[in-house]
Specification:
Blueprint: H1 10-18, H2 24-52, H3 60-81
Length: 82
Amino acid sequence: MATVEINLPDGLAREARAQGLLSPEFIESLLRKEVRRRRVDRLFADADKLAVSEATALTEEEVEAEIQAARKERRASDASRG
């Protein structure tokens, strides 16, 4: 498990601590949600790039290979957390 140190203004740190926002569980949840959101954003950005480029029409086999690669990446990411 990694340890992360952050520097915050004192007032913000006090308020965040009082609201439970600095607990390891909350920060882990927050980071997981952001990682997931960015992964989805990247997926849509990649899909947009493919849609724009007519020269990159994928075959059904290539689409399946991309799906399998994305699933493999997700499983690897999930495994590294657990």
